[in-house]
Amino acid sequence: MRADKSRICALGLVIALGLAGCAGSGSTTTAPVAITDLASVAGKWVGLLEIAGSRDREDYVEVTIAGDGTYRAASARTIGVMDARGTVKVADGRLLIQGESGGKGTATLYTQPGQPPRLLQVNGTAGDGRPYIVRLRPQS
């Protein structure tokens, strides 16, 4: 009986050490990268939209940035469809976003380990004044 307890304790210790080693081995640091032109971020991006006052809910969103300085963001949400359009321009290494309905935001491009290696984070204010964050990854 005592040998069984010792084996269980030893097994638990091995598992705990193994998990601790896995947790500490990966790097999750991200680094901002200057956006130099629209071509570097043009294309389709997908991710999650968090908007204040949405009862802690995130919506899946697809954003297409065109080389002509326009964008379209679309999402099939539980309470209806979101279809936002507007313009984007590069300034100071970031993307400035102006929506047709009055919303605005600033996007920062990050590099990160793993796949996909790029993350575009948009912090902004919706047309109704609520703050939002969108974390986007390029869609292949």
State the distance separating the first and last CA atoms: 57 Å
Outline:
globular
Class by alpha and beta content: alpha+beta
The pLDDT mean sits at 82
Strand count, sense and closure of the main sheet? Answer: 8 strands, antiparallel, barrel
By CATH, the topology is Lipocalin
Just name the CATH architecture. Answer: Beta Barrel
Radius of gyration: 21 Å
Strand runs, count: 9
Q: Uncertain spans, ≥5 residues at pLDDT below 50?
A: 4-26
Enumerate how many helices there are, as a single number: 1
Features:
single chain, 140 residues, alpha+beta, Lipocalin, eight-stranded antiparallel barrel, 1 helix, 17% helix, globular
Task: Report on the architecture of this protein.
The protein has 140 residues and is an alpha+beta fold. The chain has one domain: Lipocalin (Beta Barrel), CATH 2.40.128. Helix content is 17%, strand content 50%. It has one helix at residues 2-25; strands at 31-33, 43-51, 58-65, 70-77, 80-91, 94-99, 104-111, 118-125, 131-138. It has an eight-stranded antiparallel β-barrel with strand order 2-3-4-5-6-7-8-9. Strand 5 and strand 6 (94-99) form a beta hairpin. It is globular and about 35 Å long. The N and C termini lie far apart (57 Å). The model is unreliable at 4-26 (pLDDT under 50).
